[in-house]
């Protein structure tokens, strides 16, 4: 099924204010966020259709999702559990009674003519995320409080780039389960907003609520921005909403541009209109999308087809069995393994990575394991556009690979080549792979020295440049020597010998 609708293009009034500093002009800003996060469920919020919205268009759709008259929604209980886990992870409170409302509006991607949400009685209220002092761009610690967390269904997806005069509608995403997280207007700067979203991503990934990938739309951000003169009430400004910001960089730039736009209007004696705006990341400009609708315009009403959700105290007590939260994990990894902050953050941000690391580190040097995980494995994952959870690499395989290096059975360069095969799906044991590829370590120092001498003779200009003080040439010569040994010599041994030979020529 494909739906077509001819569209007219909105005219844009563009603004670009890239260098405006609110601190230098006596203005301040107030910022609130609305995050829409897709839940990790196999089925949609109110139907049995698959939640895989990026399959072939209109293949995961049932009558409820398409808004066929007479079809009735049925709440997916797993979505309730994930929403409860999210609000508890945010230090909020699960509401024992919650209910669903219809938010009425017409748009191409809304097949029902309304969205089912929890405006009046959400499943969660309260909570906070703490932004830590001395994090990049932050000059003080602060808590950003959560107003509420509600369950709601996602819209369909509009596709604009196939036919110039038509919008195609893919209903796969219609009805996919979301939580909407609404903050209080506690945020003052674009950097604080970006740090809040980053910490939210880490938290929800870590406790298994969502992938939170902004690049594929499983986490989307709307931002409310207003400005006021220094000394005035911080809620006195007119609020404008920026829709569908899809990366941390875009969030920073869009907020900065909107703050500057509002300051320029107010400085010129003009009013800021309450409206919804978009952001053009290429030009760094905000543009008018539509006049802002107030809440009464949506004609909220209780959904008559969905009963209230009643949650017992015993259910809430059981729901408090959360996985270890990110802040606790950070402190434990630092204390237990003495890892770098960068390695810890990299692993915490990848679902399942901390467990993978700790299992691989049993009986091994944890810093060496962490280096392989965050450098070599993550490099391969990035090349494949893959998540660790989807990789065929196992803890056993990585452990055997590292043990082979430690026992001088293979070199680190050979291990990196074997890692590629393992991440391509190779199922043979490390011992079998070593035998099949004829991997070995070149132990004869005299042979390594001869190869190193031959390398220096082959690259006299680079050797001469090193002797004249261009020390960066050393790595080039070491690399060529390792290459000449076919990766069989240990890098640290080659490095020592090459340096000795060069220094003897001074």
UniProtKB/TrEMBL annotation:
PROSITE patterns the record matches: GATB (PS01234)
Its quaternary organisation is: Subunit of the heterotrimeric GatCAB amidotransferase (AdT) complex, composed of A, B and C subunits.
Q: Where in the cell is it found?
A: Mitochondrion
Q: What is its main location?
A: mitochondrion
Q: For the Asn/Gln amidotransferase domain, which residue ranges apply?
A: 355-502
Q: List the GO cellular component terms.
A: glutamyl-tRNA(Gln) amidotransferase complex; mitochondrion
Q: What does this protein do?
A: Allows the formation of correctly charged Gln-tRNA(Gln) through the transamidation of misacylated Glu-tRNA(Gln) in the mitochondria. The reaction takes place in the presence of glutamine and ATP through an activated gamma-phospho-Glu-tRNA(Gln).
- Which protein, by its recorded name, is this? Glutamyl-tRNA(Gln) amidotransferase subunit B, mitochondrial
One GO MF term: ATP binding
Record field: catalytic activity: L-aspartyl-tRNA(Asn) + L-glutamine + ATP + H2O = L-asparaginyl-tRNA(Asn) + L-glutamate + ADP + phosphate + 2 H(+); L-glutamyl-tRNA(Gln) + L-glutamine + ATP + H2O = L-glutaminyl-tRNA(Gln) + L-glutamate + ADP + phosphate + H(+)
Keywords, A to Z, come to:
ATP-binding, Ligase, Mitochondrion, Nucleotide-binding, Protein biosynthesis
Q: Which GO terms describe its biological process?
A: glutaminyl-tRNAGln biosynthesis via transamidation; mitochondrial translation
Classify the source by domain of life. Answer: Eukaryota
- Protein's UniProt keywords contain Signal: no
Q: What is its EC number?
A: 6.3.5.-
Family (UniProt): Belongs to the GatB/GatE family. GatB subfamily.
EC class of the enzyme, as a word? ligase
Which Pfam families would you find in this protein's record? Answer: GatB_N (PF02934), GatB_Yqey (PF02637)
Give the matching PANTHER family: GLUTAMYL-TRNA GLN AMIDOTRANSFERASE SUBUNIT B MITOCHONDRIAL AND PROKARYOTIC PET112-RELATED, GLUTAMYL-TRNA(GLN) AMIDOTRANSFERASE SUBUNIT B, MITOCHONDRIAL
